[in-house]
Amino acid sequence: MDMTRRNFIAAAAVATPVLLNANTAFAHLSRGPELKLAVIGCGGRGTGALFNALAASKSSGCTLKVVALGDLFPERANNANNALKEQGHAQVPADRVFTGFDAYKKVCATDADIVILATPPGFRSIHFKEATEKGKHVFCEKPVAVDGPGVRRFLEAAAMSRAKNLKVAAGTQRRHEACYIDAVGRIDRGDIGKVIAGRVYWNMGSLWNVEPDAKRSDTENQIRNWLYHSWLSGDHIVEQHVHQLDIVHWVMKDDPIMVRGVGGRQVRTDSKFGHIFDHFGLEFVYPGDRFVFSMCRQQDGTDGKVEEVFHGVNGVASLQSGHCEISGPNAWKSSGKQTDPYTQEHIDLQTAILKDIKLNEAEQVAKSTMLAIMGRMAAYTGKDVTWEQAMNSTEVLMPETVEFGSRPVAPVAIPGKTQLSLPQGKA
């Protein structure tokens, strides 16, 4: 869940998104069919997704009406509503602007066709389940959980959404980016031969931080500074590096056997940074003697790198947002203009709804989220973690219910001392 993305189980049912040619789908209509949109989580990412969706409607051929806004904090919901007015859109009536911990239930009880889920990730599986039960199509920001139970809850709701023929687009926007779709298609058809290894990175400096306020409860302070508390964010490997791990899942076409890795907290020594790590280095082992090396870092003064590289027996594919290329006998470079992927993902969702095209990314984003969670588990504990252990983990970071009050900051994980939480007999 980024501020302007970073400035702030049946696999057959999950189709790899294609760029849907929606520009002329409803050109003969003066206004086009109406879709009603609601937002849960009106911070920077939620408001950004709201305006991405409004921009997308110009290409998908629909009239998009914003019918409800929900956020825990009143000022954020009101700010989003004011932004609608400032950008020339109709505001949401006051009785459709919901706040508090139950705002998501009130939003899902409205007549919205599509609900955007953009709260801190810990809440995601709870909100997705509610939206699915109420029959809503969903744009769901990544990641979709912070622990194994959350992933399992999300997967259960994903199965329900498929059964109801609901459309789900995830905020893993590279799957809607033209150069990525082209590059992965070339990898799939064998342009670099069998993929035997990968290297993926999100290395950067530090991010925003909200100082605690003594007038607020522990819970409120942590939610307002959610990035630094794993019960809300999953740690930055889950919140941010899930993008690269989603590409790994897309390219490797399999679940990993296990992961081992390291991580720590070298520069985030102040308590205002909660308890999360500032770097991870991981090795994911795949069937067929294949592996992927993963690195993510948030430390000021360090070199940045955001990229996915895959090595095949006949070439190498290097993927970055806006530019992808292949070296080797089938050399290729992406070219040409493409729609901003943050808008394209909403074009694809709206068009899938209007034309009843299969689009449900819920399971794939859940599995990508689990890749990140199992990486965190391995780094926190210093233990090798199998896919089965991760999927069956009993570690609960996100409680079923949350209320304002006392909540001590979780201790910093210590490899070798922090234990895996597994069902009895699964160690």
Topology (elements, then pairings):
Layout: E1 34-40, H1 44-60, E2 63-71, H2 74-86, E3 97-99, H3 103-108, E4 114-117, H4 124-133, E5 137-140, H5 148-163, E6 168-170, H6 178-188, E7 195-204, H7 218-224, H8 230-233, H9 236-239, H10 242-252, E8 258-264, E9 279-286, E10 290-298, E11 305-312, E12 315-320, E13 323-327, E14 332-333, H11 341-355, H12 362-381, E15 385-386, H13 387-391
Parallel strand pairs: 1-2, 1-4, 2-3, 4-5, 5-6, 7-10
Antiparallel strand pairs: 7-11, 8-9, 8-15, 9-10, 11-12, 12-13, 13-14
Helix pairs in contact: 1-11, 4-5, 5-12, 10-12
The coarse silhouette is: globular
What CATH architecture of the largest domain do you see?
A: 3-Layer(aba) Sandwich
Tell me the CATH superfamily of the largest domain. Answer: NAD(P)-binding Rossmann-like Domain
Roughly what fraction of the amino acids lie in strands? Answer: 15-25%
Distance between the termini: 33 Å
Helix count, DSSP H or I runs of 4 or more residues: 13
Largest sheet: 9 strands, mixed
CATH class of the largest domain: Alpha Beta
* Percent of residues in helices: 25-40%
**Class of secondary structure makeup:** alpha/beta
N-to-C SSE series?
A: EHEHEHEHEHEHEHHHHEEEEEEEHHEH
Task: Give the number of DSSP strands.
Answer: 15
Question: Spatial order of the strands in the main sheet?
Answer: 14-13-12-11-7-10-9-8-15
**Rounded average pLDDT:** 93
How would you describe this protein?
- By secondary structure, this protein is of the alpha/beta class.
- The chain folds into 2 domains: 3-175 and 342-360, NAD(P)-binding Rossmann-like Domain (Rossmann fold, 3-Layer(aba) Sandwich), CATH 3.40.50.720; 195-312 and 368-391, Dihydrodipicolinate Reductase, domain 2, CATH 3.30.360.10.
- Helix content is 33%, strand content 20%.
- It has 13 helices and 15 strands.
- It has helices at residues 44-60, 74-86, 103-108, 124-133, 148-163, 178-188, 218-224, 230-233, 236-239, 242-252, 341-355, 362-381, 387-391; strands spanning 34-40, 63-71, 97-99, 114-117, 137-140, 168-170, 195-204, 258-264, 279-286, 290-298, 305-312, 315-320, 323-327, 332-333, 385-386.
- The strands form 2 sheets. The protein has a 9-stranded mixed sheet with strand order 14-13-12-11-7-10-9-8-15.
- Strand 2 (63-71), helix 2 (74-86) and strand 3 (97-99) form a beta-alpha-beta unit.
- Helix 5 (148-163) runs antiparallel to helix 12.
- The radius of gyration is 21 Å and the shape is globular.
